[in-house]
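Hi P.,

Sorry for the delay on this. The queue was packed all week, but I finally got your sequence through. Input first:
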Amino acid sequence: MTPETAGPTVAAASAFRGESLVFILSQHRSGSTLLQRILGGHSQILTGAETFLLLHPLYALKTTGFRAEYREWEARVAVGDYLEHYAEGEQTYVDALRAMAAVLYGAALARAGTRYFLDKTPRYTNIIPELHRVLPDAHYVVLLRNPLAILASQLERLPKPTTFQNLTLLRNETVLAPPRLLAGIDLFGPRATLVHYEDLVTDPDRVIGRLCDRLGLDPEPGMVDYGGRPDPPGRGGFWDKRGIPHHDRPTTESLEKWRTLGDDPQRRHIARSFLFELGPEVVRRLGYDFDELVAAVAPTDAGDAGVVCAWDALMVPAPHADDYLDAFPGTADYPPSPPLTRTMPVTPSRISVVVPTTGGPERLERAIRSVVLQSRPNVELVVAPDATAPDCAEVLARFEPWLAAVADPAPGGFADALARGLAATTGEVLTWLRPDEEHLSWTLGTVGAIFGHRRDVEWLLGGGHFALDAAGAPIAQVGAPTSLADWLRSPGADRRLEPLRFGFVRRTLLHRSGATVDPTLVDAPDVELALRLAAHARPVLAPVPLGGVVPSPWWRAARFADDADELLATVDPAALPATPFAHVHRGADATRWRDTEATRGPS
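Then the structure:
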């Protein structure tokens, strides 16, 4: 094919916008296979096993949630550069994906002679915005179900009592999928058709008739009576083999099975944790009564009354989850987690970095670049606009593809912005950058390795930091204090307090310490937070500097010191924690992080 003939062909294919496609978007265990089986009984609807066709190509439009043997961040930057300089921007990639979809789905439709192809791939909930961007004219059927019924169905596959290690397999299918589906409903607008599982099994003829009407099709006899209908070809046929083969048409016998969650103390605990993680607003928008669901799994004895372990704590990778939860009633009597029987790819814990815009556009850009150029995968970057600082809209627009979230503008300055940014994070490990700070090339890789190998480490500090010149070159190495008391008492007549640099905190520790910073301490909220964290965990020093500090205006340091002095004036000096910081280093085998005696680095 010559370039002259290739151009029009691609152009024609890229005009495809999904008109002949139907997507069922749902959580796992929500009845999507049942709905697919019924709709697939229409002579004008072709369907197959979960295709996964668009999952990998559409992840190329995302900046989080994926990992590969190559450095996926570098690939994302390189593809972006190519599209910017050699094509018509990212829209060219979108057009190419439309052409790909036209060819792949079109080949199936041409062979079968049908009007629609029905794609049911539950993991498409991870790419809903990207899917809609590429195929805006497709038909989107959003299937919802009682969230406790979904959880009960998922737990049914696990041993009873289960191990918390097994729960880590449910992260995406439980707390992440529902709000993504709700956001999809808002995004699709009139292209969305909403179906509740309870309506589907209670009155299937009405529901299927409405769906056919939305597709411009007449319902055909026998669609609902799917019994005896063969599985379509594909990898393993339909994936759900548990309920479909046992019935000839939809049945209501499973509608109330979820209530058995309340019969078991461990599953009651899991269900309450799950509900409170979703929250009343999400449950209400799904179409269910939050109070009714909570009451159904309420504690039945004083042993676990009122106890709800945070869902992100349940998601702690085993074997540490079992140790962590020993303190919660109703969980300590269960056996430790055995090895998983199937191999799962190892994805490192997410590190969330909050960058307030207090330093202005130039400092914001340097801080963002210091994060996005890290080689460590699964990093979430959240920018927190400071409404009292110079406008950074142009920088935010340029780096928008690399930002996981932009918090609401904060009228209360740095502390307010930091609090809003922390509230927008989802990672297991949290950190933030002050206006004069930036990360070094090894920062997040080192932090991730330490937190990954040392579950006992909850609060990590840099083993000093580099002083950088205006161009970012190191000019000196500044040592870390040896204890919080050493840090807070160190200022003298000729030296004022400086921030405790480059701290990384586990989310579970932050929650135990109050979950956020005090926004009334406009410039030094991290001083008060450090005192709260110290009541629950001992800080640990990394063996290397974890960041660089560039020159900043004298008044910024003075405002921090003034805020800190005002706070410390209310604290009894004898109450300042004097316990020396712990100190870790990589062992001789280069795989384990071992304790060493904490010492002050060079100043």
